[in-house]
Amino acid sequence: MAVSVTFWRFPEEEDAFIRFLDTSGPIVAMPKGKVRDKSALVPLPLRDLLARDPASIVMWLRDSIEELPIKTFPDDAGESYAIRWPMLPVLTYHRGRPQAAKPA
């Protein structure tokens, strides 16, 4: 089984983090979690995906994964799909975002 690492940064630190990742080679990414349209499970260049402002992503070196294992999740609204990222050599990334203050 591959080892997965979860990592997060605050928005103002993100560009330095991406530049660091780019030193390893071309990075591709996908949104982390379920999607309704299976065709949405296509790896995109990391910066292209981040421009779409996802909350969480899964990323890896472009040539390190030959085929993505996709799991189907049936539910009342039909089906949704997700890659089985815990089985892959990937990083998961959650974008740090300020939380609203809770009322006292």
Characterize the structure shown.
By secondary structure, this protein is mainly beta. It has one domain (5-95). The protein has helices at 14-22, 46-50, and strands at 5-9, 27-31, 44-45, 56-61, 70-75, 78-83, 91-95. It is flat and about 35 Å long.
Keywords:
single chain, 104 residues, mainly beta, five-stranded mixed beta sheet, two-stranded antiparallel ribbon, 2 helices, 34% strand
Tally the helices.
2
Distance between the termini: 45 Å
Query: Which structural class is indicated by helix and strand composition?
Result: mainly beta
| Radius of gyration, taken over Cα atoms and rounded to an integer in Å | 15 Å
By DSSP, the count of extended strands is: 7
Mean pLDDT: 83
The oligomeric status of these chains comes to: single chain
Give the number of domains: 1
In a nutshell, what does this entry contain?
The protein has 104 residues and is mainly beta.
Per-chain topology:
Layout: E1 5-9, H1 14-22, E2 27-31, E3 44-45, H2 46-50, E4 56-61, E5 70-75, E6 78-83, E7 91-95
Parallel strand pairs: 1-7
Antiparallel strand pairs: 2-3, 2-4, 4-7, 5-6
